[in-house]
Amino acid sequence: MSLPIVVVPHPLGDRDEEVIRQRGVAIAQECVRILTTPMDALALEFEGKQHPLPRGVMPR
C-alpha cells in the first residue's frame, strides 16, 4: 500500500496573512495525521476514494 494523497485546496495564497497561516496549519495537521495513522486505518479510510482533477485542469 502507498500513502494516501493529501489534497491541498487552492488557491492557497491570500492577501490576509492570518488566512494563509490557518490554511498552512490545517494542511500540516492533515499531513501529520496521515503520516502517523496506522496503515490499516488509512487503508479503510482511503479505500476507493477518488481524487478528481480540479475544474481548471484539462486532462491531456
How would you describe this structure to a colleague?
- It is a single chain.
- This protein has a domain at 17-46.
- The radius of gyration is 14 Å and the shape is flat.
- The chain has helices spanning 17-36, 39-46.
- It has 60 residues and is mostly helical.
- It is built from two helices and no strands.
Number of helices: 2
Q: What structural class do you assign from the helix and strand content?
A: mainly alpha
Provide the helix percentage.
40-55%
Q: Write down the overall geometry.
A: flat
The poorly predicted ranges are none
| Element string (H = helix, E = strand) | HH
The averaged pLDDT comes out at: 80
Quick one: biggest sheet?
none
Strand content: under 5%
Number of strands: 0
Rounded radius of gyration (Å): 14 Å
Please report the distance between the alpha carbons of the first and last residues.
Answer: 27 Å
Short recap of the structure:
The protein has helices at about 15-35, 40-45. By secondary structure, it is an all-alpha fold.
List the defining traits of the structure above:
mainly alpha; 2 helices; 47% helix; 60 residues
